[in-house]
Amino acid sequence: MEWRDEGLIIGVRRHGESSAIVELMTRAHGRHLGIVKGGRSRRMQPVLQPGNSVGVVWRARLEEHLGVYAIEPLRQRAAALMESGLALSGVNLIGAWLRFLPERDPHELLFDMVEALSDHLPDARLAPALMARFELAVLSELGFGLDLERCAVTGAVDDLVWVSPRTGRAVSRSAGEPYADRLIPLPEFLRDDGLLRQAGSHEIAKAYQLTGYFLERDVLAPRGLKEPQARRTWLEKSGLAKSDAI
Fold first, then answer.
1. Claim: this prediction has a pTM higher than 0.90
2. Domain boundaries 2-76, corresponding CATH code
3. CA distance 55 to 73
């Protein structure tokens, strides 16, 4: 068996004396592992770093085997990411959420998102907003997507400012006002790409309150898990950990 793809490195661990097991988020084959022979060599170590994008050929005798990767660099970000504590924590958080996906299950939307997000991780003005949108997409890809397109009560598509914690559906200002203390704020930038760069820290903190609630309820709690340390570190590095909205 053989296939070719592109992927983002999200994890590396040693294998034997000279090889490495590399965990990739690939475009067409999802989260996928493989052995890189000689992966611990001086030539390959700079390539096999989380956050780097690579071209890959995977070969195995049977589909269910771990298989062997032949890897070539496409975009080496690791050196720049290592210079930023924010970026390093972002790489760890990306990997933490992607590991909730079934192995080898394609999620092209998430692949495109993490490629773009990885390019911007050192940018403290943009990365936190992008990461919040990534968490929203993770919920959707795991089957727990929120309905933020129209009001659950009136059907309106404008002035959606809350989300119901019970249904995960948006609620308009007029319909939700009497129940505001029971609803979760909905930051506008989560619905409008054009507002990403305008999102302030308070709005971004609200976004993490929203995604955090549903990730806890639908993804973590059923598995008996707590919020990943990688997320707590990310919020600290983003300056959001002490926000009233988190």
1. yes
2. 2.40.50.140
3. 6
